[in-house]
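QUALITY CONTROL LOG
STEP: pairwise intake check
CHECKER ROLE: data steward
CRITERIA: each record must contain a sequence immediately followed by its structure tokens, with no blank fields

ENTRY 1 OF 2
RESULT FIELD BELOW
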Amino acid sequence: MKKLKKQLKRIYLNEKENEKDFIIERKEKQYKFPKLILIMRSELYRGMFLSVTNDKSNKVTDNSKLSNKSFQILEYWIYSNQIKDGIKITQQMIDEIKIGIDYFQLNQTNPNLFDLLIKKFKNQNQNSKKKDCLIF
């Protein structure tokens, strides 16, 4: 399992761009993914790629209405089962990502993305309150 996570992160970090054979097109940017990862992580794409059709396209337009930040959180989680360090989670992002999880029909394995977001959001708020209570 560790080896698979390492390989997925390597792909995410663009070390093997040629392995990314599918594009999710958004207004601002194109996101490249290996079909295999999308098949593993998303019921939506599993159905799309494994259905018997003559459609051989390698691109789809994302109509999820997610902000770029929320989409990038989903993208990183799809590859790593983690939330990227340094991301400040807001309630709006949590709401958007909950919709995105449903939209993309993401397989919620452990750790569950929504649970990770809530935990990180609570930790941020607790740390923020602690800083506010400090007297200088």
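ENTRY 2 OF 2
RESULT FIELD BELOW
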Amino acid sequence: RYPVESVQSIVTDGLNVLSDVGNSVLACGDPKAKPSYLIDKNLESAVKFIVRKFPAVETRNNNTVNFDLTKNYLDLIITYTTLMILLSRIEERKAIIGLYNYAHEMTHGASDREYPRLGQMIVDYENPLKKMMEEFVPHSKSLSDALISLQMVYPRRNLSADQWRNAQLLSLISAPSTMLNPAQSDTMPCEYLSLDAMEKWIIFGFILCHGVLNSDATALNLWKLALQSSSCLALFRDEVFHIHKAAEDLFVNIRGYNKRINDIRECKEAAVSHAGSMHRERRKFLRSALKELATVLSDQPGLLGPKALFVFMALSFARDEIIWLLRHADNMPKKSADDFIDKHIAELIFYMEELRAHVRKYGPVMQRYYVQYLSGFDAVVLNELVQVRQDNGLGFCRL
């Protein structure tokens, strides 16, 4: 039924395919034909590790957190959440979008091609957080892993003034013998990470992946600590998000969430009763600590090299407390108003400006110090870490 030429062509093509398969099998069996990464001695242990664990290769074997990836991921989610909440607060949004489309049709003779999608999105996101709770179900694991990686960072950044004082935080003169030693931390970027940003991540993040609050004690502890520390979050300028009421309204319609609702109410009471005084005492401590730091560094600017981390931490802590005060001053119950009137806030800002001026003036001193530090210390430690990872297999990062 088929032309002879076609049959011959099919047979020839088939023989060529079989020949190629045979050649590839021989190539895989020939050590000289293997890809270079399979015979690289430096990767030998990693390849053996992957083959041994295949197909369930655990790439998060060293509990290392990728700071930049985690921060950018969480910032992206919070920006998206904030935009959708702000959009839902524009009362005239339907009128504005509808008028635009009508004008587009009058001008161009047809509707904007994206109008149906935009219109449907406006309808779907009437209650943005409720919609996003459904939308983020497939992302719950990634999001909860990223949030739980804050389990050591956020509580350490959210200590009381007494705990800071007992630890002699930010003091250069508390231990004179170590004054010239470089300030070090295994989680360097986290030491001056914005407390305001972390609270947004935790509160909005656990609303979106709320199921983990019922199954993971660490997640629940982070959530409760954030709920006790603030009553509202800044969305944009004077637009704020009232945490406890919004969370309770979302959870009240979810079956089996009575315990979570009780948690929210207890945390709200704690925030109203104690958050104001806790932050007031922090500002009091920071005024003293920044004054001491600025005085010492003005006399000994060379300490900006080894103790630069202290300066950035001091500026970050003070920034967080000022932002918290401004955010809550107009959004807290009147019965605790005294905690939100700070006559000494200008003094704190003055010491912040003084520290910032030191950093700008003596920037070259800090640069020279860390150029030497890179070659004299970091290069040695990096060499050791690379050797350890080569000996133990690949060291991957996780959220």
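INTAKE CHECK: passed for both entries
DESCRIPTIVE NOTE, ENTRY 2: The longest strand covers residues 232-236.
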